[in-house]
C-alpha cells in the first residue's frame, strides 16, 4: 500500500507517518500544493497512492479544496468515483460545515484529532485495507 499524509502541523504529520508506515510505503506533504504535486507525480510514475490522510485547515488551501482537485483530476483521467485513492480527512475540525462538504466532495472517512493508532487502523479496516501492521 502506498500512503500520503498531508498536514501542515509537523507533530501530527510525523505521528500519522509513524503509525501508517507500518502498513505501507508512507510519504508526507506539508501543504495542499505539495499534496497535489505528489498525487499527480505518483500517477505519472505509474505508482499511485492507495490512501491519503488529509488535514483540512492548511495555510495554502484547505484539505477540502485539495480533495476536490484530486477528485477532479481522477475524473478527467477516467478514474471512476470509488475506484480512486481512498481519502481520510484527519482534522481538528468537527463542524458540520466541514464534515458534510468533505463527504460530498468524495472523502471516504473522517477522524477528528487528537487521533491514535487504533482510530487510524479502524479507518484502514473499514476502507478495506488489510491490517498487517498490528
Description:
- The protein is α/β, with parallel strands linked by helices and 134 residues long.
- The chain has a single domain, classed as Response regulator (Rossmann fold, 3-Layer(aba) Sandwich).
- It is built from five helices and five strands, in the order E-H-E-H-E-H-E-H-E-H.
- The protein has a five-stranded parallel β-sheet with strand order 2-1-3-4-5, with helices on both faces.
- It starts with a strand and ends in an 8-residue tail after the last helix.
- The mean pLDDT is 94.
Break the fold down into its secondary structure elements and pairings.
Blueprint: E1 2-6, H1 10-20, E2 25-29, H2 32-44, E3 51-54, H3 63-76, E4 86-91, H4 96-104, E5 109-112, H5 117-126
Q: Radius of gyration, Cα only, in angstroms? A: 13 Å
* Backbone shape: globular
Q: Runs with pLDDT <50, length 5+?
A: none
Structural class: alpha/beta
* Mean pLDDT over the residues: 94
- CATH homologous superfamily assignment: Response regulator
In CATH terms, what is the architecture? 3-Layer(aba) Sandwich
| Residues in helices, as a percent range | 40-55%
Strand order of the largest sheet: 2-1-3-4-5
Number of strands: 5
Would you state the CATH class? Alpha Beta
Distance between the termini: 15 Å
Task: Please summarize the sheet with the most strands.
Answer: 5 strands, parallel
Amino acid at each position: 500500500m502506498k500512503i500520503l499524509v498531508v498536514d501542515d502541523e509537523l507533530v501530527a504529520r510525523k505521528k500519522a507517518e509513524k503509525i501508517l508506515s507500518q502498513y505501507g510505503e508512507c510519504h508526507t506533504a506539508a501543504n495542499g500544493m505539495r499534496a497535489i504535486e505528489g498525487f499527480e507525480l505518483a500517477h505519472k510514475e505509474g505508482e499511485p497512492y492507495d490512501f491519503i490522510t488529509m488535514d483540512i485547515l492548511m495555510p495554502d488551501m484547505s484539505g477540502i479544496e485539495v480533495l476536490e482537485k484530486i477528485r477532479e483530476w481522477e475524473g478527467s483521467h477516467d478514474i471512476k468515483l470509488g475506484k480512486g485513492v481512498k481519502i481520510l480527512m484527519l482534522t481538528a475540525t468537527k463542524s458540520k460545515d466541514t464534515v458534510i462538504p468533505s463527504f460530498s466532495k468524495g472523502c471516504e472517512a473522517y477522524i477528528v484529532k487528537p487521533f491514535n493508532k487504533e482510530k487510524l487502523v479502524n479507518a484502514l479496516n473499514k476502507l478495506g485495507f488489510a491490517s498487517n501492521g498490528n
